[in-house]
Design brief:
Largest sheet: 10 strands, mixed
Number of strands: 24
Number of helices: 10
Bound molecules: alpha-L-arabinofuranose
Distance between the termini: 32 Å
Oligomer: single chain
Strand order of the largest sheet: 21-20-24-18-17-14-1-19-23-22
Strand content: 25-35%
Radius of gyration: 23 Å
Structural class: alpha/beta
Length: 502
């Protein structure tokens, strides 16, 4: 066992916990929509074909916002194909995933689902094959009250009230060579700026997300953000970040410390935003929308070009282990500690496609391992995020160098003074003795300590064994010399809830 110390002081507030940090993502891809959230005829489906078991688990997961309809899919999407009488909707070729898109689910069905699931919608517009005019038409259809061509079309489709969708993404991963309609940074920056300007005329109350780099490894990372913001700084509110993590080679420590990579990525994008802001002498501040993040065994994916044409094919339905769940819990900690700038984040995706929720046609939905750290963080991270000082031994990663063996972050509810501590022990062999000093807030006691990990790190949940992995309650904590003492098993994620002793 090794020892580490953390000081948590309620005076050091980073920011309020952003409501939309617990967002997710539904793309027309694989079995995310068809056979995921929407499966007419399934015993769990309602009259609209929406699977109620998925609605229930999405609520339990604590999802606050959902980005839709893509992803790569959106760069070739004609939104008009997905509205109006179903029998008149065409079957289309989805070039992003070489799939047949039946268009039986579209904007209005998504909004019915979003209302039922009590999530805020985040819409993306197609800036791959389309542009300013189509983005404005879609916004007019969605948000304009009535009396114009597209708002009246919505009303004719049976939706009298405007959807009033607040947040809109200006395309998706436009720097990626895999993207339909890939652009250079200058081309995209100009298009994003012009689209933003026009969309704001249609509806001045919207907020807009410009595409950042597809990931931190893109050769143009940094310069892409700078060029795009040089063009669009004054008319967008957010820049997007995407990141998927998996173990590379034998660098297990590097994988377990993926949150350090996420920290560095976020801080690089903040620096770029603020550099452009300073250059422009602007009073505006661009925030970050981490609107795709997760673990993805991407190296096992055959690639879009090698897929056969199919309807709702099984695409990247990765099964997650306990170890993956530990890493995912740590990634959420990275998002939380940057909550002064990252105020939207979407776990990609929600159902079946690299997802916390899985479904099959012949059974009810179940929770993957990664469901648990997300749900527990969404439930317990309340109030304000606190800056935590951690003193921990280090581990060596071939790719990252020295990384902290224990990582943690904390949130505090101002009214009750309750503190939720989220902690990971990345050491493969030893438990950590975590000594928590609660700063000027006085003595605290642990009221709940939930652990995931410690053993059986390769265990997964499946259709056959949906309840094999669940978090367990721990009693391995106490108070010594004014410190809260908590034991963190090797390779584990913990949520430790404390309350002031009165
Ligand atoms: O989430 C799967 C895909 O990953 C999305 O379509 C795309 O935006 C990203 O590359």
């Amino acid at each position: 066992m090794f020892t580490c110390t953390a000081t948590i002081d309620p005076a050091f507030v980073i920011a309020p916990v952003p409501h939309r940090l617990f967002g997710s993502f539904v793309e027309h891809m694989g079995r995310s929509v068809y056979g995921g959230i929407y499966e007419p005829g399934h015993p769990e489906a309602d009259v609209n074909g929406l699977r109620l078991d998925v609605v229930k688990l999405t609520k339990e997961l604590g999802v606050s916002a959902v980005r839709y309809p893509g992803g790569n899919f959106v760069s070739g999407y004609r939104w008009e194909d997905g509205v109006g009488p179903r029998e008149q909707r065409p079957v289309a070729l989805d070039l992003a995933w070489r799939s047949l898109e039946p268009n039986t689910f579209g904007l209005n069905e998504f909004m019915t689902w979003a209302r039922q699931t009590e999530v805020e919608p985040i819409m993306a517009v197609n800036l791959g094959t389309r542009g300013v005019e189509d983005a404005c038409n879609l916004l007019e259809y969605a948000n304009f009250p009535g009396g114009t061509r597209y708002s009246d079309l919505r009303i004719a489709h049976g939706v009298r009230e405007p959807h009033n969708i607040r947040t809109w993404c200006l395309g998706n991963e436009m720097d990626g060579p895999w993207q339909i309609g890939q652009k250079t940074a200058t081309e995209y920056g100009r298009l994003a700026a012009e689209t933003a300007k026009a969309m704001r005329r249609v509806d001045p109350d919207i907020e807009l997300v410009a595409c950042g780099s597809s990931n931190e490894r893109m050769p143009t990372f940094g310069s892409w953000e700078a060029t795009v913001l040089d063009e669009a700084y004054d008319v967008v509110d957010y820049i997007s970040l995407h990141a998927y993590f998996e173990q590379h080679g034998d660098d297990r420590v590097g994988f377990l410390a993926s949150a350090d990579t996420m920290d560095r990525f976020i801080e690089g994008v903040i620096a770029t935003c603020d550099h452009i802001g300073a250059k422009k002498r602007s009073r505006r501040r661009i925030n970050l929308s981490f609107d795709e993040w997760n673990l993805w065994y991407e190296s096992r994916f055959v690639g879009q070009d090698r897929l056969d044409w199919a309807r709702a094919p099984r695409l990247i339905e990765d099964e997650y282990t306990v170890e993956d769940a530990v890493v995912l819990g740590n990634l959420l900690m990275s998002l939380l500690r940057h909550s002064d700038r990252v105020t939207i984040a979407c776990l990609a995706q929600l159902v079946n496609v690299i997802a916390p929720i899985r479904t099959e046609p012949d059974t009810g939905a179940w929770r993957q391992t990664i469901f648990y750290p997300f749900a527990l963080t969404a439930r317990h991270a309340r109030g304000e995020v606190l800056r935590v000082a951690v003193d921990s031994p280090t581990l060596y990663s071939r790719t990252l160098g020295d990384v902290s063996a224990v990582d943690l972050t904390a949130t505090r509810e101002p009214d009750s003074g309750d503190i939720a501590v989220f902690a990971v022990n990345r050491d493969e062999h030893q438990s950590a003795r975590l000594r928590l000093r609660m700063g000027i807030d006085g003595a605290h006691e642990v009221v709940e300590h939930v652990v995931l990990g410690g053993d059986d790190l390769l265990a997964t949940n499946s259709k056959e064994t949906p309840g094999r992995v669940i978090p367990r309650s721990s009693t391995r904590h106490g108070i010594e010399d004014g410190f809260l003492d908590v034991e963190l098993p090797p390779v584990s994620w913990s949520m430790i809830r404390t309350t002031p002793i009165r």
